[in-house]
Amino acid sequence: MKIKKLDMTNFRQFKGRQVLQFAADDIKNVTVIMGQNGAGKTGIFRAVLFALFGDIHLSQDADDAVIHLINENAMREAEKLPVISSVSLTFTHGNAEYTVKREIRGRFDGSNYMQQSADQQKCQLSISLVGEAPQVITDSTVVDQKIDAIIRREVREFFFFDAESLQILADLGDPKVRDSVKDGIYQLLQVQDLEYSRSLLKKMHERIQREVRSSAKDSQVQEYQQQLERVESDFADNQQQLVQISEEIDRAQVELDDKKQALQASSATRDLVAHIEQVQSSLNQQDQLLKQRQSNLATMIHQGAAQLFEAIIPDVRQQVDALRNSNNDNIPKYILEQSLEKGICALCGHSLAEDQQAQDHVRELLRLFKYSQSTSFLSSIDQGIAEITQKHGDFLVEQNKALSEYAADSQQYRRQQGDLDSMKNRLHATASEIKEFQGLSHSVDHISEDIGELKSNKANFEAQQVILKDKRAELNNELDKRAKINDQLTQKLQSAKIIGQMQDSLTTILQDYSDDSRLTLQERTLTLFKRLIAVKDQQLIDKVEISPNYQIKVYNQNNRELSNDLSQGEKQILSLSFIMALAQVSAEGRDEMAFPLFMDTPFARIDGDNRDRLIDVIPSLVQQWVLLLTDTEFTSAERDQFVDKDCVGATYQLSNLNGNTEIKAVDDIMLLELRGENVG
C-alpha cells in the first residue's frame, strides 16, 4: 500500500481546498511535512485516518473530547448554512489504485458549532485497474469491508502513530496495555482467523454429536454418546483452565522477575531505609525518655519552691515560738461546745446549769476561740520546717543530677536527629517508594509461593487431560463397536471423530503459530534495533525477550535486564523496532501487509546521532516514510542528513495565520525555512 495524494476541503485548520502529493518513488520515498505546534501536522494524520476509517477521534484524544472536523472559520462565514468538510485519499494496493472519499456536514448557528455524527458520514470508494473502467462504491458498509481487506481497523495504530505510540514499550508493564497490545498483535497476525475456525469446528462437532444421539436406537449407544460429550466438555474446560493457568504463571513470573530485579537494585536503598528505621526507633525512645525527665523536673520545681524558704527558716521558727507562748488554746473547741450543750463541764463535771458564772465563763472562752486554732497551724509550720531542713542537702544533689542527665539526653537526641536528617537527604526516594522497598522481599516470597501453587495446579490439570483423553478413546472404541451394525451411525461417529481431531490439531497449530511468531518477533525486533540505533549504542542490547503475554524485556551481554536503564529516546527506537518487526512478521507469505510508516513528531526525545541513524536506515526498510515534524526537532543537521541520503521526494511547509493553515509545497528540501536561519 502506497499513499499518493491527500485532498482536503475545509478540514480542521485547512480552510478551502488543500492538496498533498506524497513521495511514492521506490528510492525517493520520504515525505517531509514541517510546521510549528498547532499548525495542523496532527490534522493531516487525522485526515488520513478519517478517509480510511471514518475516524473522528484519535487514540490520543480524551474519550469525552469534542472534535470538530469542519473548519470553524468556514462555518462562521456561512453562518446558519451547511458547510461540507471532505477528505479524499488516493493510494495504490496491488495492481489497483483506490480513491476513498468521506465527507461530513455541519453549521454554525451563531453561537454553537454543530457537526453530523460519525454514522451520518457520506463515503465513496473508487477502484481503478489498468484497462478497466473505475468501479465506484457508495455503500458505506462495502467501502469499509474493502478498506478492511487492505488494512484492518484494529491494527491501524501499529502503522500510523505519533510520539505517544512510540512509547508503547515504556507502558508494557501495565497489564491492561499488555493485553491491548497482545489483542492488536493477534489481529495483525490473523490469529483471530484461526480462533474463528476453531469455534466453527466446535459448533459442527456439537451438531453431529446431537445427530448421533437422535439417530442411535441402542440405549447403550446413547449412554456412551452422552458420556463422551461430558468427557469432551470436561476436556475443553480443562484445556481452557490450562491456558488460563499458564497465562497466570507467565504474568506471575514476569512480576516475580520485576520484583527480584527491584529487590536487587534497591539493596543499598533498603539497607539505608533499615538504618533509618533503626535510628528513628532509637530517636522515638529517646524522645519518650526526655519527656519523662521533663515531667520529673516539673515535680522538682514544686519541691524546689519550698526549698527557697531555707534562708528565712530561723526567723520563721522564732515567730512560731512567740505565737505558741501567747496562746491558751489547749482546750479544743468541741469540748467547750459540748459542755454548754449538756450543761456539765466536759473536763471537770461541774454543773454549769447551777453555776451561772461558770456558764458565762465557758461562753466567753468559746467567743474568743478564733485565736485558739493557731495551735494546729503552728504545728504544721514546724513540720514543714523540719522536712525542708532534713531534705535540703539531698534535694540539691538530686536536682543537679536530674539537670545533668536531661542536658546529656537532649544533646544525644539532637545528634541522632541530625544523623537521621542526613540519611533522609541521602535517600532519594518517595514515601511510596520506601514502602515498596520494604515490601519487596515479602512480595518475592509471596509471588514465589503463588507460582509454586499454580504450577502444582497446572500439573494436576495436565494429569487430568491424560485421563480424559484415555476415557475419550475408550468411549469412541465402544461406540465404534456398537455402530458397526448401523452404517449411517458409523458415518456420523466417524465425522464427529475427524472433526474432533481437527479441533485438537487446530488448537496445537494455534499455540505453535503464536509461539513461533512471538519468537520470530523478538529476533527481528533485536535485529532492527541494532540497525536503527546509533553505532555507539549498538552493543547496548544483546537480547530481546517477549513472553507469551507480550511482556517485553531487553538484556545486555551480562544478561542484566535493561528496561529501566534505557533513555526515553532509546525506548522510542526500541518501540519502533518492535512495530516494524511486527509488520515484517505479519507480511511473510502475504503481500497485503505492506504499509507506509506515518510518524508524527518522532525526533523530539531522540539525540542527534540516533536521528542521523534513523534517517539513514528507515527509508530502505519501508515503502514510504511520511514525517510530520516541528520546527524545533527538524534542524539544519537533519536536513543535511536527508540531502546526503537523497531520499526525500516531497517537502511541505505548514503556515498558520489566524487559525487557518496553508500547505506550501517546497521544491527542494534545501529551500525549507528552518527556525533561526536567515532566509533573506
Automatic annotation (TrEMBL):
<feature type="domain" description="Rad50/SbcC-type AAA">
    <location>
        <begin position="5"/>
        <end position="242"/>
    </location>
</feature>
<comment type="subunit">
    <text>Heterodimer of SbcC and SbcD.</text>
</comment>
<feature type="coiled-coil region">
    <location>
        <begin position="444"/>
        <end position="492"/>
    </location>
</feature>
<comment type="similarity">
    <text>Belongs to the SMC family. SbcC subfamily.</text>
</comment>
<protein>
    <recommendedName>
        <fullName>Nuclease SbcCD subunit C</fullName>
    </recommendedName>
</protein>
<dbReference type="GO" id="GO:0016887">
    <property type="term" value="F:ATP hydrolysis activity"/>
</dbReference>
<dbReference type="InterPro" id="IPR038729">
    <property type="entry name" value="Rad50/SbcC_AAA"/>
</dbReference>
<dbReference type="InterPro" id="IPR027417">
    <property type="entry name" value="P-loop_NTPase"/>
</dbReference>
<dbReference type="GO" id="GO:0006302">
    <property type="term" value="P:double-strand break repair"/>
</dbReference>
<feature type="coiled-coil region">
    <location>
        <begin position="214"/>
        <end position="269"/>
    </location>
</feature>
<keyword id="KW-0175">Coiled coil</keyword>
<dbReference type="Pfam" id="PF13476">
    <property type="entry name" value="AAA_23"/>
</dbReference>
